Amino acid sequence: MTTLYGIPNCNTIKKAKDWLNNQQIDFDFFNYKKQDITKALLKKWIKQVGWEVLLNKKGMTWRKLDVQQKENVDETKAMQIMLDNPSIIKRPILEANKQILVGFIEEDYQQLFSTK
């Protein structure tokens, strides 16, 4: 099963969706804005790629956090920030073939699905 996680109005999500559709790959879309990311799911992702990869410190959501929230971020603090502010999770996240990819890089998608 293939699942794409993100928010629908994100340009990178649109690129990933277009790529998957053009390759005729069936996928479910998980909308952060309408569905809650669970702590268990976030832990699974962190175990696979690390919290530093998932936490988007370049976006508007990060900039809007107060200084105290941004100080001394570790895995526990990052997890809580991501649970409280799902828009801060880098996107898209693609789960397929027991792997996850963070962000959209066409070559990575091609490689992941060439093993099907």
Characterization of this structure:
The chain has 116 residues and is of the alpha+beta class. It has a single domain, classed as Glutaredoxin (3-Layer(aba) Sandwich). The chain contains 7 helices and 4 strands; from the N terminus they run E-H-E-H-H-H-H-H-E-E-H. It has helices at residues 11-22, 39-49, 51-54, 60-64, 67-70, 75-84, 106-114; strands at 3-6, 28-31, 93-96, 99-102. It has a 4-stranded mixed β-sheet with strand order 2-1-3-4, sandwiched between helices. Helix 2 crosses helix 6. The radius of gyration is 14 Å and the shape is globular.
CATH architecture: 3-Layer(aba) Sandwich
Number of helices: 7
Q: Overall mean pLDDT score?
A: 94
Rg (CA only): 14 Å
**Main sheet properties:** 4 strands, mixed
Q: What is the string of SSEs from the N terminus onward? A: EHEHHHHHEEH
- What is the SS-derived class? alpha+beta
Low-confidence stretches: none
If you consult CATH, what is the topology? Glutaredoxin
In terms of DSSP E residues, the strand content is 5-15%
Q: What is the general shape? A: globular
Separation of the first and last Cα atoms? 11 Å
* Strand order across the largest sheet: 2-1-3-4
Number of domains: 1
